[in-house]
Amino acid sequence: MGKKIKKEVEPPPKDVFDPLMIESKKAATVVLMLRSPEEDILAKACEAIYKFALKGEENKTTLLELGAVEPLTKLLNHEDKIVRRNATMIFGILASNNDVKKLLRELDVMNSVIAQLAPEEEVVIHEFASLCLANMSAEYTSKVQIFEHGGLEPLIRLLSSPDPDVKKNSMECIYNLVQDFQCRTTLQELNAIPPILDLLKSEYPVIQLLALKTLGVITNDKESRTMLRDNQGLDHLIKILETKELNDLHIEALAVIANCLEDMDTMVQIQQTGGLKKLLSFAENSTIPDIQKNAAKAITKAAYDPENRKLFHEQEVEKCLVALLGSENDGTKIAASQAISAMCENSGSKDFFNNQGIPQLIQLLKSDNEEVREAAALALANLTTCNPANANAAAEADGIDPLINVLSSKRDGAIANAATVLTNMAMQEPLRLNIQNHDIMHAIISPLRSANTVVQSKAALAVAATACDVEARTELRNSGGLEPLVELLRSKNDEVRKHASWAVMVCAGDELTANELCRLGALDILEEVNLSGTRKNKFSEAAYNKLLNNNLSLKYSQTGYLSSSNIINDGFYDYGRINPGTKLLPLKELCLQEPSDLRAVLLINSKSDVSPPSSMEDKSDVGYGRSISSSSSLRRSSKEKTKKNSYHFSAGFGSPIEDKSEPTSGRNTVLSKSATKEKGWSSLPISR
């Protein structure tokens, strides 16, 4: 045998790089590898970065600072599936970082991420691409980008994915997107309700919860409610409520039902299938406060429709609500009170609460929680409006004192509602007297000074209802309540101005209060208001006339007549006709004017022993701007005037004219006959 010859190994080609195994312990080194053209290097670098990012937020920030995001975005469209998958996984994790989100929006990668949702892609890619979109969709700008790039349709398709993580991420992203109305509209067009309802059967509570939350948002739109009803969605929701093991979903399920009950067709359907009775029983018997609260809210929303109120009344919803008033949870008490307020529009319900409900609401007025007091006061306001029986029931339940205490509440709504209840009660005289005995006139002053126009309006109306006798008006005057009331006459709010005028009209019923109102400027303000075509109202005109009857000199100068009920007293004077808006000067100022050619001011003074001031005695009548003549002085000089051809000075013409028995000014002078006979006065001629 011949000797074996050893075969020589051929050396590698000179243009081929020898394989190099590198073990890197620095993230910066791996980030540099992301720019490699080798698929194997890219895949391993992405895998290492993914594991690094999973460890915490600090690592995500580090990768951002090292510039890893931009080269990674280019790998989303890489030809190699493994590279593309690993890059997508990284973005699913990194997108939870706010700074990364911001950079991704700037790099406009949304289209590349949405492309990973294609049906032919792996489930893992679907999972992390949908996770990236779910994280991104938490911000409005990203929502817009997802919607504009057509991301909603593939997300809805993925709701039927066999992978629960894909379902969860897709549902979360859809929930974020449907906060926008335009997305909700598109969701209806894409028929998304059936796959969302299917998720209610999921074995994963987080998926069920996201589905319910999404339904809670989209059923704010009528079209979605119709689609839910047509797809037997209410049956799914009722089943959830009936399943005790799903009690963590009951609150969200009730929120969806609350929206659906706003539609009459849905209400009828749920009533016919027995679902409404189950709902009320569930609300009443549940031991979870939030569930009771949401059930009451559902009733409130539905009760705004008159037909729904009728159906609720037939199902005796009132008993359920009264039971909820006794809850230990303040939120439940508030929701139940609001539901009662809504049900008050039904007369049958209103009558039911007369014996059951009103006493409990009165007790809630004593709560330390201001919101509870406000909700209870609102319910009582609606119950007592146009219902004397309920107003009387509130008084019998010792409600007057707590209602007056609520007038000092920190919440404007509570104050306004309490004032409304007191106004409704004051329509009955026995109750009004009872209210007055509880110091209402002092308590109402603070609401009159409120900056809230609703409170101002209700407070002024309460004054109009309670200040119906002299004692009450005196108490209001002595407590300083007239000043803020007069200020409300200047309000730019029509309702406030109307109710303030009404209250002033009532308060002007006695002379002392009327004089005080005039002193505070009420007459001038009302005159200004009535000159405006837009600000005046029937009450402002009535209030002005009521005050004018306590200032007959002004009334006579403005209108040229006095009615038979106007009794003139000493101090009445005839200045002559003045134009609207012109202020009538008081006697003191008239006496101090310089001489002029205006006619004399005629003064009624029945006391014969009254003599003019010394300054007047020193000067002749025409020495003043307006000569002032009293009836007694005219009587004393009547003989003298007769001897002088019955002449007296009339400043209107600046020359003596002949005295006549009939007025020469053309004004309709009507003086009370009873007054002239009693005082011995005679009708004085007025001439110009």
UniProtKB/TrEMBL annotation:
<dbReference type="InterPro" id="IPR000225">
    <property type="entry name" value="Armadillo"/>
</dbReference>
<dbReference type="InterPro" id="IPR016024">
    <property type="entry name" value="ARM-type_fold"/>
</dbReference>
<feature type="repeat" description="ARM">
    <location>
        <begin position="356"/>
        <end position="384"/>
    </location>
</feature>
<dbReference type="Pfam" id="PF00514">
    <property type="entry name" value="Arm"/>
</dbReference>
<keyword id="KW-0677">Repeat</keyword>
<feature type="repeat" description="ARM">
    <location>
        <begin position="150"/>
        <end position="177"/>
    </location>
</feature>
<feature type="repeat" description="ARM">
    <location>
        <begin position="480"/>
        <end position="504"/>
    </location>
</feature>
<feature type="region of interest" description="Disordered">
    <location>
        <begin position="609"/>
        <end position="688"/>
    </location>
</feature>
<feature type="compositionally biased region" description="Low complexity">
    <location>
        <begin position="626"/>
        <end position="635"/>
    </location>
</feature>
<protein>
    <submittedName>
        <fullName>Armadillo repeat containing 3</fullName>
    </submittedName>
</protein>
<dbReference type="InterPro" id="IPR055445">
    <property type="entry name" value="ARM_ARMC5"/>
</dbReference>
<dbReference type="InterPro" id="IPR052441">
    <property type="entry name" value="Armadillo-Ser/Thr_Kinase"/>
</dbReference>
<feature type="compositionally biased region" description="Basic residues">
    <location>
        <begin position="636"/>
        <end position="646"/>
    </location>
</feature>
<dbReference type="InterPro" id="IPR011989">
    <property type="entry name" value="ARM-like"/>
</dbReference>
<feature type="compositionally biased region" description="Polar residues">
    <location>
        <begin position="663"/>
        <end position="674"/>
    </location>
</feature>
<dbReference type="Pfam" id="PF24768">
    <property type="entry name" value="ARM_ARMC5"/>
</dbReference>
<feature type="domain" description="ARMC5-like ARM-repeats">
    <location>
        <begin position="253"/>
        <end position="525"/>
    </location>
</feature>
